[in-house]
Amino acid sequence: MPKVKDQFRRCPLPRSFPNHDSFAKAHSKAMADLVDHVVENLDNLEAISPELERVGRVHAQIMRGELSSKLWNTVAETFIDCTLEWGDKRCRSETVRKAWALIIAFMVERIKTGHLEQRKHMLTMRTTIAALERTELKNAAAAVAAAATAAASK
After folding, report:
1. Domain coverage including residue 23
2. Closest CA to 121 of 54, 63, 60
3. What is the DSSP letter of 41?
């Protein structure tokens, strides 16, 4: 969990939050709401997939593609550990533990998919922009050279 907390503390603080603690509280609430939404849609998980992938894309954008996709594995492990800590441990069956692990694995895999797709898109955009800038520089250099040649021939 410290790895996740450290990464969370390094993320840019949205303007609507006065400090990281208030942001962490709101983020935790949003995560709990997302888990509730997934549980409510267990009969139709494909209906929730686009929302989970959107969450991953947003995280890639917020962190400018710098959030490691490996962190999602840590998030999944942390979630699963938390689900094992909830409630009365004596009443928890192996089936319930497996069900929670599957739900969390599904959620995190969909989020991770959106995150990776967005990172790939961002890398493509950066590469395209860099290529355009190089072309523009070459064209500008050629124009300067042509102007210098024309001026020298007068």
Report:
1. 2-117
2. 60
3. T
